[in-house]
Amino acid sequence: MDKQTRDAEPDHPSKTDGVAAPGSTGSISLKRSKKTAAGVRHERKTIRPPKTIKGAEHPKAHTIPISLGAMLVTIGVVYGDIGTSPMYVTKALLAGNGGIGSVTQEFVLGSLSLVIWTVTLLTTVKYVLISLKADNSGEGGIFALYSIVRRFGRWLIIPAMLGGSALLADGVLTPAVTITTAVEGLRTIPQMHALIGDNQTNVVIITLVIVCILFAVQRAGTSKIGRAFGPVMTFWFLFLGGVGLVSMLFAPQVLLAINPVYGIRFLFSPHNHAGIMILGSCFLATTGAEALYSDMGHVGKGNIYATWPFVKVCLILNYLGQGAWLLANQGNSALVGIEDLNPFFQMLPDMMRPFGVVLSTLAAIIASQALITGAFSLVSEASRLDLMPHLQVFYPSETKGQLYIPLVNKVMWVGCIVVVLLFQSSAHMEAAYGLAITITMLCTTVLLFIYLHSVRKLKVFPYVFVVFFVMLEGFFFGSSLTKFFHGGYFTILLAALIMSVMLCWYAGTAVERRQATLLPVRNYIDQLARLRDDNTYDLVADNLVYLTNGTNTDYLDRDILYSILDKHPKRARAWWFVNVEVMDDPHTFAYSVENFGTDYIFRVHIFLGYKVNQRVNAFLRQIVQDLSASGELPPQKRDYSVYKRPSTIGSFQFCMLRKTLAPESDIDSRERTAIALKYAIRSFAGSPAQWFGLENSSVFVEYVPLFTKFKSVSKLTRIAPNERP
């Protein structure tokens, strides 16, 4: 860029009556008015959506009422992960204690007591009773929680990114683990064993087929998936509770495990062969708790409150039933030789076992859904917070909280396939299972402390809460660290990769925020008028359209005006600056136009329901026809056409702006790296032209410099043509 061009650029708001934008240029929204150099206050003029909205059916679409249908969806979508824990928790506890030959009443009562109170304290108390109250307009999850408390400290971004990254990483692993475990469980049925055999390759192939089907149906939406999965999971929990209750009849003393004293006593008992590491196996019983919080936006907190007691009772009954079976068979020498003895299947009668294995396989497949839907919610929240690039989002159902993000679905799809191919067996995958979730839970605890202390203004309880749960989850984290070298490293590395993406995006956005500026449109009306009539420049198009994210009507991002006026002036008969805003109502169709008293500058705000396909090209043509019919847009004469009567509306071109960092920009290497990495990540986020239905339109991408201070250079000295310095 030459000096003349740089001198023509408005470097400071004081020179241009501009307003420094508080956010990144990709999502500019002024929160309050700003002063100009003269001290005059310019009031913000932001277009508001109409109070009466055409096609409105759900005035509060994000509020999901409690109903039997919604409760069925909740059971099908939310509890899959935690609902399959009885299949492997007791098995892991038994293996860590030396097998069936080492079973004693102290072990059964103590270990089950630890499981029951782990579920009670972490899932019921922390998440159901406390976390669900910390929602952001109905949305849950660690990023929604961060958005509530972030004003109380910049450092809070660290636990938010760390916890969110760990949860997303575990979400990639969970479908692979649960589905592989279920497929391997089919071998316990003689007929299925004859079909599958002992060749692990067959298990891998079947697992990959199921994984592909699971991710392929995500586009249908969690509401439709929940209606399909809900009845199966409801029957699954009834099955868990029923078989557990029947098994308890043979050893009713197992009910003593409800007393927490047995768990604490056994934790520090010399008969506890696993020591403190037994908590790592107990923690598997509550790995779905964080996903429960993240899925709140999909099903509504009321439906979680209504269904959790039923789910928890069924889980506890099954754990107690497995404990009763262990007590009844502790001296059974015939069971000692069974490899990987699983009390969950062994306590089933022989005639019922094939049915139980098939049902558990279905439940394990459904378990993957909780993490997938939770990942959609987490990424959506991260995008709103500018921690991740803005992605294309679909809302397949009538409820806005139930969303589908194609790119996230594809990434998790590929990730699950990689995990299955890399680890091959569930035994190898389980070594990594749950480690990352302990990190997420610790981070959520920190953010909840800030919420309780600073938002709810509670005095004593927040300190009791944070001390108790940090110590508890710290124990779980320490016990889970033993899994690191046996597969846990994969989850941690994946979490680190996701967090690095967030850090790069966050750091790059911070650099952009320091230079982002909004300029008043009215100050440039005269220049645009002269450019429109300046025949020395070719006509780019009759109508030149820029898509913006700003809702401020009177101001535009400086880069847009720079593109039109400075970066080879773009002459047009009319300039259109279009903003699309997604509304909470599913079927909104509305727009507003500000023409600044001209017939060639149009600031358009399009309000669309979240169920409406954002075909900007089609909607804009309707708006243009309306303005042409009203006389606000003068006829644009066309001399040539395939029709007998040419249209009075001319050609359209859409300009997509992309920022680039000039080599001579005066920023340090760290900031330059942050910007470069952010723009590299952005290239994988998809094409806005496709999101807005402009695939078949005339679209061109223009790169504009990221306005920063440029490095000073030494002044050159002019010498004679034949002279050498």
UniProtKB/TrEMBL annotation:
The keyword Zinc-finger does not apply. Its main location: membrane. It catalyses: K(+)(in) + H(+)(in) = K(+)(out) + H(+)(out). The chain crosses the membrane at residues 61-79, 107-129, 155-179, 199-217, 229-251, 271-293, 355-379, 403-423, 435-454, 460-477, 489-508. Residues 71-516 form the K+ potassium transporter integral membrane domain. Residues 1-15 have a biased composition (Basic and acidic residues). Residues 1-56 are annotated as: Disordered. GO terms for cellular component: plasma membrane. Keywords: Cell membrane, Ion transport, Membrane, Potassium, Potassium transport, Symport, Transmembrane, Transmembrane helix, Transport. It is a multi-pass membrane protein. GO terms for molecular function: potassium ion transmembrane transporter activity; symporter activity. Residues 544-700 form the K+ potassium transporter C-terminal domain. Belongs to the HAK/KUP transporter (TC 2.A.72) family. PANTHER family: K+ POTASSIUM TRANSPORTER, OSMOTIC STRESS POTASSIUM TRANSPORTER. Transport of potassium into the cell. Likely operates as a K(+):H(+) symporter. This is Probable potassium transport system protein Kup. It comes from [Collinsella] massiliensis.
